[in-house]
From TrEMBL, chain B:
Keywords: Cell membrane, Membrane, Transmembrane, Transmembrane helix, Transport. It comes from Azorhizobium oxalatiphilum. It is a multi-pass membrane protein. PROSITE patterns: ABC_TM1. This is ABC transporter permease. The lineage of its organism: Bacteria, Pseudomonadati, Pseudomonadota, Alphaproteobacteria, Hyphomicrobiales.
Amino acid sequence: MSNKSTFGQIASGVSRRAFMVGGTAAVASAAVLRGARAQAATKVQFMYPVGVSGDINKIVSGMVAKFNAAHPTIEVEAIYAGNYDNTEQKVITSLGVGDPPSTWLPINSALQTFLGLDSLADVTQKAKAGDIYQDFLPQFLDTCVSDGKLYGLPFQPSTPVLYLNRTAMKEAGIAKAPQTWTELLEVAKTLTIRENGELKRWGLTIGGGWHDWIFECYCRQNELVPWTKDKVLFDNPAALDALEFWVKMEKAGVMPKASTWEGSANDFMAGRTAMLYHSTGSLTNLRKSSKFEVDVAFMPKNKVFGAAQGGGPIMIAKKQTDAQLEAAWTLTQWMTSTEVQSQWCRDTGYLAVRKSAWETPEMLAYLKEVPQAKVALEQSAYAGAFLQVPGYHKVREYLKSALDRTLAGEIKPDAALKEANDASNREIQRLLRRRG
Amino acid sequence: MVISTALSARIREAGLAYLLLLPSLAFLAAFTYWPILRSIWFSFHDVVLGDSKIIWLGLENYQRLLEDRLFWKAFGNTAFYTVITIPLAITCALLLAVALDSKLRGMAIYRSAFFYPVMIPSVAAGMVWVFLYSASYGPINKGLSLIGIPDTAWLYDSKWALPAIMVMSVWKYSGYFMLILLAALKLVPSDLYEAARLDGISAWNRLIHITLPLISPTLYFVIIIGLLHSYQIFDYVYVMTHGGPADATNVLTFYIYQNGFQYQDVGYASTLANVLLLFVGGLIAVIATVFGRRVHYLGR
């Protein structure tokens, strides 16, 4: 039955005046209801970034719309703020004028920065009241813990993984993913293609922009966590060994000196590089947008397997009304609930934070179809939090600059790491001095 | 009596002048002079964005700056960018303006075409050039491969990234400078050219001895504007390279932004901003002294 005929039947059975009056009353009552909801609803903002490739913005705004529909007393405004850096800057600027968003999603390394600004709500007791300590995967929950207190909940944890162009590997006669650094170099050599001296395909690309994160993974594969709470250890021989291996790969002509985060993902999808270190959060996009078979493997080990835990938690502002705090906590719990996390993981490739989310029927079916999705979870058993030091931002830039300049051949690895180490520790000391 | 009437009229006139100036002065004071004073004050302190605690440091930030390798790198990059881009853009603009000053058919279309890059938003233009410069599939590499130049990742190569941005800037600014110079050319009396032509003066000599001296006030203005633009370059760096690779494209304004907003180190960012302000101010003073005196003002 078409809409037109329905309207015609109604119009013919009811007088025009009665119809108009009824219609007006319906519209008015709807407006009153909306007004009542607007009055009763607690308004909170959720500021979030998009830190990987793909259409994540649309997914998050869809999730928030779903939350709003299911919670008539809360009205969440989803604010897309750019990348992690942009989001952090916007939150910090709004903290400066005393009007922060209720919740936001920073990179987990920003924990100490926000604690330094005394801006985070301690949710330890709230979390203990529920099943959070029992059901959340501890390696992810740990990224929100400082001095035994919980600040926010992990939402989109990730680690770098090694993406492989399976089709290219088959063509080159390579049966399995490289397991060690030595194998990685050999496989990268085999997969690099040059025609008449001109490069057609890199064997390997390390996703630029976050290559310091990947470098920490390399340090951890050398049994070094390159930082403590109040200093970095970039001048440690294990870190130097890792950087010297990067230089070796670059000199062997199997990987570019530099790349960008989005550009390296695009290069992989376009077949310009056969292997790629990138976030597990890019899995769905890389898998769906590549015209070849995409495989995922552990990052190869040296002494041990190792990874640095990236991604972000949802943090809650300390200075807001009790009603807003409660609403923000409801939102945070909902975003990290079993069903939502299961769906989020399948949509993006980020790791679900709850054990139960990995056991839903939909997730089990998905893992059967896409076994690659589980690689990062298994690898996270070897992972620890990424660079939890005050002033992590500047420290990252010092390290990235050292890595870039070394690969560009401008400076020797040991001098570069020493310089980055000293500059970083000066910055950390400056910030610790502020805290007294 | 007469004197006092004249005096009160002058006072009224001055009062009205100040009243009319007040709105713009208030804006300037609030958004320019006050921030400058505040940034001078901040440069002697440890100030963190989002934190109300301010710690007195004395000259520590300035000492840090002297030892900061990245500051000197950004300073060098900015100076290199200015020294190459401004003369190149102005020369291109001048040649285009002279060419477009003739009476050819469809001149309006040419003028619009050369001015078009100016109208494109910087971020959009930056994104387009990222594509143009792409390795392998970028049109620039495709074109260069026809003449045997090997594929280069222009924006990822620390040798080429800054020159690549400079080429784009010349493309973007030449049209703007061209339009200003074209307006100046229109004011040069045509009888001077006719007289020169009758005397058998070549086109090159007419350009050097008639055109350039007579448009020198505008040229002077364009140089100052170009200089200010070059020390404000930020958007292309942000969009195209983010200061990389290996800090090869990190320029002073971008470094200030990084310190102030990314690292929340407002005290040090203020120090950098003050040094930039002093340097650009000094440079303009030097140019005004050296070049400003050579400017010919028609009829004076």
